């Protein structure tokens, strides 16, 4: 069962991202402040929750949260500053939008760029340990999936409605067949290889 909070006394926001390991599309991040007593039996790390259950949880989290926000950084910014910095920047942008200022940030992962004026606690596997981080993972994932569905309609041959931009075998084969789209990250994997090959021609 998820822990309801890290600190009983502090107002804490859980933060997580989605899309960090993708070949295409933006990275999304969410910040969520939940009531200390919040509980929902479906809530867990978004990777452990079915798509249908994630879509069920999203409006519940949005309604029940004390505050929540979602932010994104596009593929161009990811290529410019690298995905790790982009993930942290997206989290900062989400925290910026919260209408209630947290006193503690719970970050999924082992590192984070400090957010000025708010202490943070990094928690490896935090989206499977703390409710607020799990809620943030749900919002980040569902918002990004929705965005990738929209991009899929523009570029259906990459299968983004299914792989969401991750480097599946089918996605990589589509890149070899069709080349890079305007939304591929040129500093990632096969995309980087193709970009370098084209620049050398």
Automatic annotation (TrEMBL):
Entry keyword annotation includes Metal-binding: yes
Occurrences of domain RNase H type-2 (ranges): 10-200
Domain of life: Bacteria
A molecular function GO annotation: RNA-DNA hybrid ribonuclease activity
Example of a GO biological process term: DNA replication, removal of RNA primer
Catalytic activity reported: Endonucleolytic cleavage to 5'-phosphomonoester
E.C. no: 3.1.26.4
Top enzyme category: hydrolase
Ligand binding (a divalent metal cation): 16-17, 108
Cofactor binding note from Swiss-Prot or TrEMBL: Manganese or magnesium. Binds 1 divalent metal ion per monomer in the absence of substrate. May bind a second metal ion after substrate binding.
Compartments, as annotated in UniProt: Cytoplasm
Signal peptide (UniProt feature, chain positions): none
Record bears the keyword Nuclease: yes
GO CC entries: cytoplasm; ribonuclease H2 complex
Keywords, ordered alphabetically: Cytoplasm, Endonuclease, Hydrolase, Manganese, Metal-binding, Nuclease
Function: Endonuclease that specifically degrades the RNA of RNA-DNA hybrids.
Family (UniProt): Belongs to the RNase HII family.
PANTHER family for the chain: RIBONUCLEASE H2 SUBUNIT A, RIBONUCLEASE HII
Name of the protein described by the UniProt record: Ribonuclease HII
Species in which this protein is naturally found: Flavipsychrobacter stenotrophus
Gene name linked to the record: rnhB
């Amino acid at each position: 069962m998820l822990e309801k909070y890290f600190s009983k006394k502090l107002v804490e926001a859980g933060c997580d991202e989605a899309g960090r390991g993708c070949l295409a599309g933006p990275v999304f991040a969410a910040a969520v402040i939940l009531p200390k007593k919040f509980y929902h039996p479906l809530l867990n790390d978004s990777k452990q929750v079915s798509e249908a259950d994630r879509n069920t949880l999203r409006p519940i989290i949005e309604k029940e949260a004390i505050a929540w926000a979602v932010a994104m950084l596009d593929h161009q910014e990811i290529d410019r500053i690298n995905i790790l910095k982009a993930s942290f920047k997206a989290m900062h942008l989400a925290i910026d939008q919260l209408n209630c200022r947290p006193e503690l940030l719970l970050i999924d992962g082992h590192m984070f760029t400090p957010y000025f004026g708010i202490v943070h606690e990094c928690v490896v596997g935090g989206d499977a340990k703390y409710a607020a981080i799990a809620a943030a993972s749900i919002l980040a994932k569902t918002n990004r999936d929705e965005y990738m569905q929209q991009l899929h309609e523009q570029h259906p041959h990459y299968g983004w409605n299914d792989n969401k931009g991750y480097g599946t075998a089918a996605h990589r084969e589509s890149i070899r067949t069709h080349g890079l789209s305007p939304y591929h990250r040129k500093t990632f994997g096969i995309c980087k290889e193709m970009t370098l090959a084209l620049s050398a021609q």
